[in-house]
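Quick start: read one record
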Amino acid sequence: MTIFILLILSVWALPTDGAVAKDEHGCELEGRTYAAGSRFAPNSCTTCECPLHGGVAECVTRECVQDQNCVQYSIQSDECCPTCVEVGCRHTDGKLFHQGEVIRNEACVRCYCPFGGGNPVCDVTSCPLSQCVDPVSVPGVCCPICPNGPNCQIGILTLPIGQSILVEGATCTCESFIDVDGIKRTLARCNKS
């Protein structure tokens, strides 16, 4: 009868939260003692295991991988890693931009962060071939302009569209035409009479 009561008292005295009584083998971590062979999580980012024969607890801390395009994070007290609540775009210089925000706005290139985030999107304007031989680049304007209108070069002369000149017995005219790609072009055409 004495053995039976002693057994009941020893079972009743065991801790229920994973802590270990001082006379048992276990692991101690941050001021708490854990039972040999038990697994425990001292915080939301760390899981530990106490070896079967006690000793030093072996712990693994979870690494939080951050979304490179996240603009804003939120973290709850019971979570290990923050949660992305707003996605944007990361430019090549490392700066983050919000969805819809213009990243680069130049004469021929406009880059922006698309809705849904991710990689920046760039719209590049390609300039058609010039309709003049004396185009001028204007700051802030994508394509060169023809300040003297469409024209052609005949020798050292610049001739406006529709005008003709006599060169060595041939009549040379600056003409406008549309090429096979549908692009308006200029051409000096010379005909001997």
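Helices lie at 2-12.
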